[in-house]
Amino acid sequence: MILTQPASQTVLTKEDWERVQAQFPDWKMELVGGKIIIMAPSGYESEEVSSNFLIEMGSWVRPRKLGRVTGSSALFDLPNGDRRAPDVSFVRAEKLPQTTKKPAAVVPDLVVEVKSPNDTVEELQQKIQSFLAQGTAVGILIDPDTRELQVMRPHQSVEIFRDGDTLVLPDLLPEWSLAISDLWSPDFSQPPSEP
Questions:
Q1: How confident is the model over 105-145, as pLDDT tens digits?
Q2: Do residues 35 and 4 touch, judged by C-beta distance below 8 A?
C-alpha cells in the first residue's frame, strides 16, 4: 500500500513519515521518493532465509568488532531523503561506532533483499540499485524460488551464485564465506540419517 501526498504538498517528508508512523506504530513503513510505502509481512520461507543470512554474517562480524549487522526493522536515512529498511544490512564499525535508537543516518555498506511472495525481482533490484547509487558497496538479492543470489556492485556486472557455490566478499569482509546451500530452509519431512 502506498500513501500519496496531500494535494498541497509535492512530496511527503520525514516529518510526515514520523507523524504517520506515530499514528500506526505497528505498521512497517518506508519513505521512498516522497511516498510512504506500507511494507507487507514477508513469507515464512523468505524470513527464514533472511534470518539464516543475518545469523551467518552476524556471528562472524560481531566477535571481530567489524561493524553492525541488522535485520529488516533497521531504518536508514539516506542522502536522497528516502528512509529505507533492507532485509539485512551491514555497516562498518568506523561508520557507526555507536548504535542509534533513531534511523541510522549512514548508507549501509551491504544490503540484502530476500524475495518474498509479495515481491518482484525487478522491484528488489531497483531498491538495491538505489542503495548502490548512494554509496552502498554491495547489494545482494536472494531468490528462494530459484535458489539463486545476485550480487551487485556499482559499475560492475551482476554475479550469480547457486547451490554448490560459496559467497565471499573480500572487499568488505576478508576471510568471511558462506556456502549458498546453507541459506535455504531445511526439509524436516524426512527422518534424520544415522550418524
A1: 999 999 999 999 989 999 999 999 999 999 999 999 999 99
A2: yes
Contact 43, 77 (CB under 8 A): no
Of 14 and 119, more confident? 119
Class of domain 42-182: alpha beta
Q: Which of 160, 173, 170, 105 is nearest to 135 (CA)?
A: 105
Say if residue 53 is exposed, middle or buried (CB neighbours under 10 Å; 0-12, 13-18, 19+).
buried
Are 116 and 89 a contacting pair, CB within 8 Å? no
Backbone angles phi, psi at 154, to 5 degrees: -60, 135
Q: At 41, which amino acid appears?
A: P
186 secondary structure, DSSP code: P
pTM, entire model: 0.89
Phi first, then psi: what are they for 179, rounded to 5°? -70, 125
Residue 114 main-chain phi, psi, to 5 deg: -110, 125
Q: Where in the chain is the domain with CATH 3.90.1570.10?
A: 42-182
